[in-house]
Design goal:
The complex is a heterodimer of chains A (154) and B (817). Chain A has 154 residues and is an alpha+beta fold. Chain A has 5 helices and 7 strands; from the N terminus they run ββαβββαααββα. The longest helix of chain A is centred in the middle third of the chain and has 19 residues. By secondary structure, chain B is α+β, with helices and mostly antiparallel strands. Among the domains of chain B are: 146 residues, no CATH class; 114 residues, Immunoglobulin-like (Sandwich), CATH 2.60.40. Helix content of chain B is 53%, strand content 8%. Chain B is built from 34 helices and 10 strands. Chain B has a 5-stranded antiparallel sheet with strand order 3-4-5-8-7, with no helix packed on it. In chain B, strands 6-9-10 form a 3-stranded antiparallel sheet, with no helix packed on it. Chain B has a two-stranded antiparallel sheet with strand order 1-2. The chains are: A alpha+beta (154), B alpha+beta (817). Chains A and B meet through β2, α1, β3, α2 and α4 of A and α1, α3, α5, α7 and α9 of B.
Amino acid sequence: MMRFLLLFSRQGKLRLQKWFTPLPERERRKIVRDMTMMVLARSPRCCSVIHWRDLKIVYKRYASLYFCSALEDPDNELLALEVMHRYVELLDKYFGNVCELDIIFNFEKAYFILDEFLLGGEVQETSKLLVVKSTEESDLLQETMEEYMRKPAF
Amino acid sequence: MPAPIRLRELIRTIRTARTQAEEREMIQKECAAIRSSFREEDNTYRCRNVAKLLYMHMLGYPAHFGQLECLKLIASQKFTDKRIGYLGAMLLLDERQDVHLLMTNCIKNDLNHSTQYVQGVALCTLGCMGSAEMCRDLAGEVEKLLKTSNSYLRKKAALCAVHVIRKVPELMEMFLPATKNLLNEKNHGVLHTSVVLLTEMCERSPDMLAHFRKLVPQLVRILKNLIMSGYSPEHDVSGISDPFLQVRILRLLRILGKGDDDSSEAMNDILAQVATNTETSKNVGNAILYETVLTIMDIKSESGLRVLAINILGRFLLNNDKNIRYVALTSLLKTVQTDHNAVQRHRSTIVDCLKDLDVSIKRRAMELSFALVNGNNVRGMMKELLHFLDMCDPEFKADCASGIFLAAEKYAPSKRWHIDTIMKVLTTAGSYVRDDSVPNLIQLITNSVEMHSYTVQRLYKAVLDDISQQPLVQVASWCMGEYGDLLVSGQCEEEEPIHVTEDEVLDVLEGVLVSNLSSPITRGYALTAIMKLSTRFSSVNRIKRVVSIYGSSIDVELQQRAVEYNALFKKYDHMRSALLERMPIMEKTTTNGPTEILHTNGEAEPSVRDSKHPPNIPQPSSQANDLLDLLGGNDVVPVIQTELPTKPASSGGELLDLLGDLSLSGVPAPAAPISVSQPTFLLDGISSQPLFNDVAGAIPPMTAYNKNGLKIDFTFERSNSNPNVSVITIHASNLTEVDMADFVFQAAVPKTFQLQLLSPSSNVVPGLNKGTVTQVIKVLNPQKQQLRMRIKLTYTHKGSSVQDLAEVNNFPTQSWQ
């Protein structure tokens, strides 16, 4: 099971945080700080797996964003890389050529997509099409369209 | 009241802030606006405000005042509100707050909502952050949804059930009926989450595990279909169909097949098929292969399959992708114990990984290399590992050094090689060697008798160059103190002997003493070494000077040692040579060698050091102290109780020899413990009793010794209280003209007796019979054996020191019967 998933920029700014275990606010902030420091310090030639406490931290960089997930011991690290890659693909499909700004200005949508893809730290849907389809149909249910246009002008 | 600004507006505004302070100001302003809006119970814009709050929360600002608002949003009928409300709940609320329980009712209602997306959002929230109480209350709803035909809800319910089971394991039973047809689904999402649910149940309960074993054929079939099926656009990843599902099935098969022959056999074929047919050019294929290998190694697979698995790992090691190399090393580490030979085949690749730039890979490679060292490859492996020790980062050095010591101890092909290896480690990574290795190394060196001169020569040369590495200096000092005579004599078979004078050796040791680089412990070693050389070298005066200087050292430990050594020069000079004799071969019990490197996952954290019992080799200097303590103030016979080592000749020297011959039972020396002298107080009870018995006073005295003008008479008494005790009083008289000074009388008895010497009346036997020195000896003779005694006399006469040994056999019968 994935314990948490963090997205942060190269400057260490948090763009998304998904926690799958209950932790107090202070603990969460500390972990975010630790992760950011640890991952940003790694050279590009290092492997993507770090051991931290009793967890395996798997991270990957996509353009200006770092995707960082924490796995338990029995979890498959290489598959975690695939999970993160799938999430990026889903974001790309939904937003169309997704970039960091999309995630900044539409962070709540990034969460909605994530919630259709992962639940309780596990993958809930392995079909690329269905995840995006459910998110889009949920969007249609929303009452005020002007608030939540798909691709608002910045 | 104008409408609160839009979310995107706010984000844009905050991003224009140029400094942290500016940002903080904007946020505080907006927070104040939001707070007043909340106070006014504004329903229209609550959603917008909470969304803004969530954004500010992500930037790191407090947002706890929005928690209740989230609950209000969840309770709203509008889907937009619910969506943001649940999101806020997942981000801002946690189990600790009581407010979260207020959600329970809302979630319950939403789980029964007519719109599946509302149900979905509720399930998602429950599955992510539901507390134990919430889970208990809502488990029934989840179970109901698990049986629905709506695959969208079914998959979410399955993962929600996993969460419920994790929080409240007792509820697991409840979900059992619903699992009946889970694997019959065609929908991949449901299949995947069902497999996760089954995995969770099997991991937690052996009964469930046994129950679900019957699913193995079905799982094998599903996996087979995935592999054989054609291209499916929605599930395809680089030519592989639904890798996520494949991996989860492999993981479940692992759990079901472990320890069970039938299941393992049923999955043999499919595992072989996956292992051979999976495309390995991309990460996704390797992820599946990795899981397959883990499964093969864990179940009762046939040997061919296991070899296949190890070979896959071997291929991984050659892969360009670092992540794949890393997981390969991790897996090999797990399997090296069980499939040692197979892993050995990949030894050279593993050793190459020592040179990798990545820290994690290096560490794994090092641990694995140590696991692979055996009698056959030890020379080659050690060369590589020593090279690694030289080149690696400091964080590795301690573990590497310990590992090398361990491996060298187990597999050393020759003593010389072993000593050479130790030397290399000490000189390469001397400061990183663990403290407990020093005594172990010393023991090792002591026990390699033929290598003593070689060892001390090499250590001497090493220390000449560099005295900064404490463990090296400690071992070298000890050896120089012990084998300094060999060093100076220049005999060395193994190597070119070097010319070293006594002064040069003392220079080095004194250098260690005064250097700022030396730790207090090292200084202690050096001082004791210098002291030991006093019996091996002739330049005693220099040594005396050094020792006396340190008698006023600020370091209490050094001071104590120096003072005691000084005393050894002054009062107990006659004992010095005996005390500072060569060390005996030390008994080796269990491996009190350097502790094992545990194969853990730890990298950022150090591996757990499970130190075994402390090495039972006493510090050489403290042993000297022990001897001194025994001799303390009393002139008690310095009979030391030890387990006789195999070479009694080298142990303790003359004193023990006194007793060796007297052993009446004829048992060979190694088996016999030497009788221990009782400390004074033990026999105090007896001594306070009247010793004299008028009748027993009739035992005639005898002359025990009469030579060179020294005459020693024995007079006898028997104890009233204990018939086994004889009390002998010696009377020493001097018939020469010159006094005999520093007079010391020592006695030893056969092992069936026990002896106690009380203090003499004086140390000086005045000449011309002007007075006598008396001393009381108590002999305990429980077996009523014939009393025999060997005595040793030392004194100074006419400026020279005299020593003599004598046997006393002619004891009157009444004295011992």
